[in-house]
């Protein structure tokens, strides 16, 4: 059922936005993981078709929103490395170089951390570290530019030092260094809620960055692994009876709270991949696999129109309107949708992690026989 869902989804997929966006990036990365896990050509073909239509021969990306200075824009760019490896087309290498150069001009807070976007001055959002850190880690790995690792480490250490709730061990969605946003605590600058998908982005940022760090960055890798272990340990107690996690992560019983699909999948993926990387203990894989199966059991359903993945928070942010005040009520007011790429792409990633583990276990059994 899952494989059929992926095939149908890709067959009918339309870009989420008309410019270079992170939502499409989730599907691209999911396809890359599934290709690497299964070898099925359809996944690689989808990625190459998407990129070939958007990256010019000289490596420029006409649809890239330069003036937005948005960390979100790095997510789709992670697929450039994969495309280059498959095709050796220099356009993808040029595009990756150009993308990395954008970071040098990116506006930063007084602490030296990238703003989430130009329209969010002095604000650090937890999803931003997922968008850019794995991209920059892979860029550094391929180019030998070790200065990139300082930027990566600074971002992760900032988040752990300033955005972690010491009581629960979970992380807040954002921090406003200027302390001027209505959603920001006047003393700490923090937003008010532990939004599940924010936690999910952070967990995936940790695993995907750890996977790309060279041996020379063992101190950073160790720090990220310890952070991952702490965050997973903090999150697991908040699972529901169904084995899933809720939109407001630390308040499962709250009125209107619901089991949210994309964040649950992100946690499942991070636990399975973290165990594969030996950044988490082996039992983390079991916990992640159980959460993945719970999502497929509870949220992947057959409808009159085909297979559908439900229970996905459509979007959530802070500021820009009076209602986006960071309260639990705000997060619970956002529409819940089906088949959003932020859910489907991560389902692909999690399913690929499960398949890799299954193949590894089978190989071990064969070797021992």
**Level of helix content?**
40-55%
The ordered string of helix (H) and strand (E) elements is HHHHHHEHHEHHHHEEEHEH
Arithmetic mean of pLDDT = 96
Question: If helices are DSSP runs of H or I spanning 4 or more residues, what is the number of helices?
Answer: 14
Low-confidence stretches: none
Instruction: Give the class-level CATH name of the domain at 107-362.
Output: Mainly Alpha
Radius of gyration: 20 Å
Span between N and C termini? Answer: 32 Å
Name given to the CATH architecture of the domain at 107-362: Alpha/alpha barrel
Number of strands: 6
The structural class is: mainly alpha
Taken from the alpha-carbon principal axes, the silhouette is globular
How large a portion of the residues is in β-strands, by DSSP E?
Answer: under 5%
CATH topology of the domain at 107-362: Glycosyltransferase
Largest sheet strand order: 1-2
Largest sheet: 2 strands, antiparallel
Would you write up a description of this structure?
The protein has 369 residues and is mainly α. It has a domain at 107-362: Alpha/alpha barrel (Glycosyltransferase), CATH 1.50.10.10. It contains 14 helices and 6 strands. Strands 1-2 form a two-stranded antiparallel sheet. Strands 3-4 form a two-stranded antiparallel sheet. Helix 5 (79-87) runs antiparallel to helix 6, helix 9 (196-210) packs parallel to helix 11 and helix 11 (261-276) packs parallel to helix 14.
């Amino acid at each position: 059922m899952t494989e059929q869902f992926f095939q149908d989804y890709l067959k009918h997929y339309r870009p989420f936005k008309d410019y270079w966006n992170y939502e499409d990036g989730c599907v691209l990365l999911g396809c890359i993981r599934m290709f690497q896990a299964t070898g099925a050509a359809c996944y690689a073909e989808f990625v190459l078709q998407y990129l070939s239509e958007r990256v010019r021969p000289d490596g420029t990306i006409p649809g890239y929103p330069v003036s937005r200075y948005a960390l979100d824009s790095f997510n789709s760019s992670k697929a450039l490395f994969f495309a280059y490896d498959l095709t050796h087309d220099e356009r993808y290498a040029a595009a990756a170089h150009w993308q990395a150069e954008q970071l040098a001009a990116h506006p930063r807070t007084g602490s030296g951390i990238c703003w989430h976007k130009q329209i969010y001055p002095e604000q650090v959002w937890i999803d931003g570290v997922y968008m850019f850190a794995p991209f920059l880690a892979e860029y550094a790995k391929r180019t030998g530019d070790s200065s990139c690792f300082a930027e990566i480490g600074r971002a992760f250490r900032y988040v752990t030092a300033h955005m972690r709730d010491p009581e629960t061990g979970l992380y807040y969605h954002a921090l406003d260094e200027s302390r001027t946003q209505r959603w920001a605590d006047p003393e700490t600058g923090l937003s008010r809620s532990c939004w599940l998908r924010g936690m999910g982005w952070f967990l995936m940022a940790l695993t995907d960055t750890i996977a790309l760090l060279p041996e020379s960055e063992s101190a950073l890798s160790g720090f990220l692994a310890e952070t991952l272990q702490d965050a997973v340990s903090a999150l697991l107690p908040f699972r529901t009876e169904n084995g899933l996690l809720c939109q407001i992560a630390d308040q499962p019983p709250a009125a209107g709270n619901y089991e949210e699909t994309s964040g649950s999948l992100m946690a499942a993926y991070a636990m399975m991949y973290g165990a594969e990387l030996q950044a988490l203990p082996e039992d983390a894989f079991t916990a992640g696999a159980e959460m993945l199966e719970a999502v497929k059991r509870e949220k992947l359903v057959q409808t009159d129109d085909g297979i559908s993945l439900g229970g996905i928070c459509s979007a959530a942010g802070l500021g820009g309107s009076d209602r986006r005040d960071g309260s639990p009520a705000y997060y619970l007011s956002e529409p819940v949708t089906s088949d959003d790429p932020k859910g489907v792409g991560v389902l692909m990633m999690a399913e690929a992690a499960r398949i890799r583990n299954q193949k590894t276990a089978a190989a071990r059994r064969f070797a021992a026989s």
